[in-house]
Specification:
Mean pLDDT is 94; it is low at 1-5. By secondary structure, this protein is an alpha+beta fold. It is 14% helix and 30% strand. The protein has a single domain, classed as Sandwich (Jelly Rolls). The strands form three sheets. A seven-stranded antiparallel β-sheet has the order 1-2-11-8-13-6-3. The protein is globular. The chain has helices at 10-13, 35-48, 99-111; strands spanning 17-21, 24-27, 65-69, 73-77, 80-84, 121-127, 133-136, 148-154, 157-161, 171-175, 180-183, 192-194, 209-215. Bound molecules: succinic acid (SIN) and fe (ii) ion.
């Protein structure tokens, strides 16, 4: 059977799992025990492929700073949005995906009912206070059968989670250090975004929020 519908049953009764809608789950604190290694790997990735503010096709500078790891990385410029095998800043391949990243992405996907998630791209977002991500769909991936797995670290942020239509009312979900959101199946193309980050100082991460989104691009 094609994986259009996540398996329900076991995941319904696990603690700290909140079903947002068909195909979308909030796994509170799912990454908590791995945060130290995730943060160390992000530092390592950023040393090879620094965070940068991409330009939108319309010519705006994004307030979120981004980098990538994995076989493919998401980029935006005047020519549009796309995945590339090489970092346009250095001409080198994106840093490879650390084992702890693939492991957490796969186990979170499983907890949400999606078996064998093998991401080939991980977008790393860095928000400083005031930075935001406007409502959008993740639709640059050729494989829409795989879910998106999003891991939040550092300062809390309000995540907007809407529906297939842009105008649909959005839920507001507070995402905290270690929280994971998974959306796929019927929710794969749901609109989402992040409200401007509030000021704050996180004991381990400082004045920022870091977010990893794992994708299967093809
Ligand atoms: C994204 O939509 O790519 C990131 C979402 C987030 O930062 O929580
Ligand atoms: Fe997104």
């Amino acid at each position: 059977m094609p994986m259009t519908q996540p398996m329900l049953g076991l995941v319904d009764i696990l603690p700290d799992r909140e079903r947002l809608t068909d195909g979308a789950w909030l796994l509170r604190q799912f990454a908590f025990t791995n945060v130290a290694s995730l943060l160390a790997e992000i530092t390592c990735i950023a040393a090879q492929a620094p965070f940068r503010h991409l330009e939108t096709p319309g010519g705006f500078r994004m307030s979120v700073a981004m980098t990538n790891c994995g076989a493919l990385g998401w980029v935006s410029d005047r020519r549009g949005y796309r995945y590339t095998t090489h970092d346009p800043l250095s001409g080198r391949q994106w840093p490879s995906m650390p084992a702890v990243f693939s492991a957490i992405a796969d186990s979170a996907a499983r907890a949400a009912g999606f078996e064998r998630f093998k991401p080939d791209a991980c977008l790393v977002n860095r928000y400083i206070p005031g930075a935001r991500l406007t409502l959008h769909q993740d639709k640059d991936e050729a494989d829409l059968g795989a879910p998106i797995v999003s891991v939040s670290l550092g300062l809390p942020a309000v995540f907007l989670f809407g529906g297939n239509a842009r105008q649909e009312k959005q839920r507001r979900i507070l995402l905290q250090h270690g929280d994971v959101v998974v959306w796929g199946g019927p929710a794969r193309l749901y609109h989402h975004g992040v409200l401007p980050l509030k000021d704050g100082d996180h004991p381990e991460v400082g004045t920022q929020r870091l977010n990893l989104t794992f994708r299967r691009t093809h």
